[in-house]
Amino acid sequence: MNVLSVFCMSALLFSGVAQAEFRAKQLQKNETIKLDGKLEDAAWSAVTAHRDFYQTQPYDNVAAHLRTEVKVLYDESFLYVGVVGFDNDPSQIRDSFARRDKISIDQDFFALYLDPSSGHKAAQVFYVNARGAVMDGIYSDTSGDDTAPDYEFSVSTARFEGGWSAEYKIPFASIAYDKHSSTPWSLLVLRNMTRDQRYRMYSGAVTRATSCNLCYSNPIEGMQHLPSGMSWNATPQLVARRGQDEVDGKPKQSNSSRDLSLDLKFRPSSAITIDATLNPDFSQIELDSPQLSGNTRFGIFVQEKRPFFLEGADIFRTPLNAISTRTIANPDLGIRYTQRDADKDFSILSSRDTAGALVLIPQTYFTAYATSPVASTATDARANFRFGSLAVGGVLTDRQYAEGHGYNRVAGPDFIWQIDRNQLMRAQLLMSSSNAQLDATGNLKRGATTNGHAAYFDYSRGNDVWGISATIRDFSKDFRADNGFFSQVGFRSINAELTRKFGRTGFLNEFNTYISTEYKVDSTGQVLSKILAPGVRVAGPYDSSAYMNISPSVRNRVNQDGELFSIGRIAGGIAASPGKRVARIASDFTFGDVIDIQANRLGRGGSMTMSAKLRPIDRLELEPSIASNWINRSSARGNSATQDRTYTETAMQLNSILHLSAKDTIRIILQNARTTRDPRAYTQTVAAQSTRKVGSFVYTHHAGVGSAIYLGWTITDTNTPGLVARRQQSELFTKFSWQL
């Protein structure tokens, strides 16, 4: 059977499977919906309810043990979805206070996965928990939830004697769709509840083995004559700051600023969105979590949070990180065009980045960095076409540096083929050309043109008994993508994993054994890493999970001229949701041999992370976390050998949120990062100790999407005795954002 025949059969499989659909009813002119979460309006009683729900967790392939009903209404402006969840013991409903986009699996919530294209590749998601807290964003089966985008919608919840319910009111202006498409929209509804077990119940027969949850979406029949009118909004923002900067041995400096910025969004039709930004303020109201970086050679990826870059963010997502908008460090203006049709998506973004941006220059054994001494113009374009179960796309990026300092360009095709619900194949090929090169001063300057490529292929297949996946990468040493995120180039690798699933075993809901492998070489054929790691994964009561794997003989090289080290280690982790007060606890660890990157030496050590989500009272959330790496080396003392600590790095954070009301919160973040080294263990000069402390206090009032007030104070204290003078920075700020 040839590939075309297989593709045609898979397309028929997806289009021909009949499932219980949702039936939408149009509101009449004299009918209204009171958004109180109760579904008591007369219009709801005339709607056919969807009641077919299936359990995926803790048991798979069975009907849901509790009844859930979904009803759909619409009028000329809004889509209404009502969900009723029946409960045998409503007193156990976990209705926690939560900030927007902070709903978690330890809570009772409903989630709508709305796919107007019915392409089963991505969906807009709308969450609500039993308290009425909301979360929204974009979901895809290959990358999960991206909750950074925010959409205008309303939802109310209510409790009744036998459970809880929710009413959604979603403006059609918040949904990207093709009005002229004859294909019905698709909807998948998830109900989550956590008690002695975590229960995941879907409106389609989703299984744990599937690689395509959205393939189990059901069509929404009956929706017609949808609006395609123009809509727009403008969001001016005013930021005022006053700060101090004090470096030991230098005079204290004070600074203040007042900046006005503007975000514009214009929708000439339901399928097209045009975004523009002028002098945007991209200050991070929420601090990025501290990450251990003292014993790593490569750059660390940071998630995008800035509003302008979030429209159509899923379109830019490809198997490789060809487009990472965080590379646009400090734009002063930008414009973006996004179009979504029934069978294709397209988006192009162009932004002018000011001088001083940091540019990743990936190498085989480390990530180098360059500074752009001039401004640059970054342009990213992405098109994606859907042919049944196959999606074919292309990427084009361009970074043009001003004053003749050169350019970097990347282009190439990609595809995702959902062969069937349990088989997925993806591939991408990128070609790069660059003449903006790193000079001896650490700046980018026009130089010789270099060309490179990056190729990626992966395949996964699973069922209730077996799972297999394989990934192949081939990155040439001269490949570079200044608008993307690539921390390493100049290598070829193959990764594979085979899983044997034993299903329910005793009190465990899942018991899986697996073996994972990696073989990686550099461009000259030298081995970078060889890994063979058998392990086990289990899942049990209280949404608990645990894993452990053993790597008795890992081979790893961290320096081109260095030794190929032989490493043995053990890794594991555990997580659980014990109850309402201790909502979530998690810990991961690695013990064994560790390479000290800076010393190019093998030692004994490990790493450990621990985190928790605590709710001592309903309105207070505490999220403590700690991460630590350490390395010891053997040394002789008399007739015995001892282990001396040569390196320790620890990062701690306490994130606390007090909910004054549904719209008002106070958030306090305390961070402390510390690195210590034994200078006697290194041939080069190293700091015996460095510390970084951060404290942040922010009061927030959210009036609605795009409208908020922030009042805050942040203080930072960095100190590396003997190498860098102590520096203390503080800032008071106010930020007003209002959507017109």
Automatic annotation (TrEMBL):
Superkingdom: Bacteria
Organism of origin: Undibacterium seohonense
Residues covered by region (Disordered): 241-260
Protein name: Carbohydrate binding family 9 domain-containing protein
Gene3D superfamilies attached to this UniProt entry: 2.60.40.1190
Entry-linked Pfam families: CBM9_1, DUF5916
Residue intervals of the DUF5916 domain: 252-317
Signal peptide range: 1-20
SUPFAM superfamilies, per database record: CBD9-like
Residue ranges of every copy of the Carbohydrate-binding domain listed in the record: 35-179
Lineage start: Bacteria, Pseudomonadati, Pseudomonadota, Betaproteobacteria, Burkholderiales
Biased composition (Basic and acidic residues): 242-251
Keywords of this entry: Signal
